[in-house]
Amino acid sequence: MTEFWTKNKIVILLFVVLFTAFFFRFWQLDSIPPGLYPDEAMNGVNALEAIDNGQYKAFYPENNGREGLFINIQAASIALLGNTPLALRIVSAKFGALTIGAVFLFLWLLLQNTSANNAIALRIAFISSLFMSLSFWHLNFSRIGFRAITMPFFLILALTFLILALRNFSKSRLSTFYFLSVGIFLGLGLHGYTPFRLMPLLFVAIFIILAVKKTFPVKMLFWRFCLLAITMTLVFSPLLLHFIKNPNDFSNRHNKIYFFQQEEPVKTLLKTLKDYALMFNIKGDCNSRHNYICNPQLNYVAGIFFLIGFIGLWFKKLRKSFDARYLWILYLGFFFTLLPAILASEGSPHALRSIGTIPFVFAFVGIGIEIAYQKIKAVKSFLIIPFFVLLIITTLLVDPYKYFVKWPKTNPDFSQNYLDEALFLKQFPQYQKIIIVNASTGVNTQGFPTTIMTSKYILWQEFKSGALAYILPEEISVIKEENFVAISMEENQSLLEELKNRFPEAKILKQDFNGGEFTAFVFDKNNLEY
């Protein structure tokens, strides 16, 4: 048994973290989170359009503009599973779960050196990836159909291949292959999520530090990084060409949210810095879609270990247990992935915009646990190690409990009412379906706010056939005397009265559908059954 463990421990530990990651990202994915947020549904509508017309775009300009890679992958999922919320979210779940495996390999390769150091590297890689796998922060975004989940995936893969390239630098062909791989994943990342556009700067900074330290022959290092840059540009070229032809798409939204474009930029920046300094341990994102009632992004125990790891590595005495050659990459990665969130003043602290920091945050958590373990191991008490292990296990279970048990009870805003209305309308196949758009929030898209996208995605076939129509409140007079069922997106008594005056024979149905209440107006001219 000992020999089997020695030979296969890396595979076994990787399997454990991947199994944990996949299980918690797919369990109850069809019901948690509830509803379907319009931004998710907008992706789905674009994906359905691409399926129908065969035009899979590098960039979709609606809803402030979104890179196309994630939406095009969602299109493949919809083609297999149909236009359901699950089809959109299962793509995120896969990206999220695979990121955990990538983090394990990245940290193991980053930290290993001597045989003793390899054991430490393996422990840190395992505990860091396990904590990240079960964290509310990463778990939540792994179960929402947002393209942001691609950022940590592509970035960590790029860094993993960079470490391989550096460790095999003397092997010209192998190192060149790894540098090419870094460029590929960086290029793909640029197709994923807008804040990734700053990540090439991280690799420029890494090159500068390596060149200054003269870790490798500078000329050879320069040319291999040039190869990386060329590869990245080639992979990015479809989106780059789109931006050259449509320059407004490149900065469609970002010129509205930077701190230096606010009335008091210095004050705004200082507030933003304070918000992100407190985000991990004191007060996190207050958006109910992103977090649980303003809790810090790390639970309290994990937050303490994060501080131990982040600060502890500054001290040479604590650092000597690790291979310190590339530890600085963790600090650089943390800074550059937090930079897009710091530059933006909107909604700070913003857990989604800072999603790229997650792997580095949990790397420091794992390092903090290892530092604490090294210290308590020297204490002569047979109870201290079991207590420490119990503390770690308990801490691991806090966030899954928070996510699956406590968070759904807070009714996070995923527009459950819009999904319920769409599913209700789907029960009337022989009726004209009318949605009165009196919910004005959201970005204007094709004459209507994005709030309509939840129903448009679910009722796509009806929309294409003309059996679903969207009208504004002032357009009620255009409704014809035919079998129809109408719903106003938000309850409005005056609209119901106006409909009742026009169609006195119609029925008003108060619906309690999936726990949500709304009113439907049914005009049954031909006595159809419903």
Automatic annotation (TrEMBL):
Membrane-spanning ranges: 12-29, 90-111, 120-138, 144-166, 173-190, 221-244, 297-315, 327-345, 351-369, 381-398
Gene Ontology BP, a term: response to iron(III) ion
Taxonomy, superkingdom: Bacteria
Cellular compartment(s): Cell membrane
GO cellular component, one term: plasma membrane
InterPro entries the UniProt entry points to: LipidA_mod_glycosyltrf_83
Principal location: membrane
UniProt membrane topology term: Multi-pass membrane protein
Record key words, sorted: Cell membrane, Glycosyltransferase, Membrane, Transferase, Transmembrane, Transmembrane helix
Gene Ontology terms, MF aspect: pentosyltransferase activity
Protein name: Glycosyltransferase RgtA/B/C/D-like domain-containing protein
Biological source species: Candidatus Wildermuthbacteria bacterium RIFCSPLOWO2_12_FULL_40_9
